Amino acid sequence: MRAVVQRVAHAQVVVDDEVIGACTNGLLILVCAMEGDSPAHCEKLAQKIAKLRIFRDDQDRMNRSVIDISGTALVVSQFTLAADTSRGNRPGFSTAAAPDIGKSLYQHFAQTLQDLGIPTQTGRFGADMKVSLLNDGPVTIWMDTDQYS
């Protein structure tokens, strides 16, 4: 499972001119289920992100997690994180999970964050979404469960 995690002052996702999800003082998480991923991958990634110390402490150092600051999360599905650009100029997405599996894992990931005590909202899987954010820092981190044992 792959994710791009952004520390944000605020973020929102709009579908058909309607705000369907938003967060403040927390994380915008763009997430992609990869071929072969399982619920265990979702849980591992959610736990890692929940504990990721990228928020400022009293000494202005990145030393606090989203849980520590009572922050929120906005989770948006983004299959383009599976892009393979190794051949030519048109990306391939064959390593992304099939849509039905991807949707299930995306929902499981968001629910796991919620279960970890992080108020979590989501985008709409497969929809044409408009995502806006104010990146705080900026802090943007790319993560992949293949990196963790």
The whole-angstrom Rg is: 15 Å
- How many helices? The count is 2
Shape: globular
The assigned CATH architecture is 3-Layer(bba) Sandwich
Beta-strand fraction estimate? 35-45%
The share of residues in helices is 10-25%
Strand order of the largest sheet: 6-5-2-1-7
What structural category do the secondary elements indicate? alpha/beta
* CATH top level assignment: Alpha Beta
Arithmetic mean of pLDDT? 96
| CATH topology call | D-tyrosyl-trna(Tyr) Deacylase, Chain: A
Q: For the record, what is the CATH homologous superfamily label?
A: D-tyrosyl-tRNA(Tyr) deacylase
Low-confidence stretches: none
Task: Tell me the span between the first and last alpha carbons.
Answer: 13 Å
Provide the number of structural domains. 1
Number of strands: 7
N-to-C SSE series? EEHEEEHEE
Largest pleated sheet:
5 strands, mixed
Concise summary:
With 149 residues, this protein is α/β, with parallel strands linked by helices. The protein is 20% helix and 39% strand. The chain is built from two helices and seven strands.
Please name the defining characteristics of this protein:
2 helices, two-stranded antiparallel ribbon, single chain, D-tyrosyl-trna(Tyr) Deacylase, Chain: A, globular, alpha/beta, 149 residues
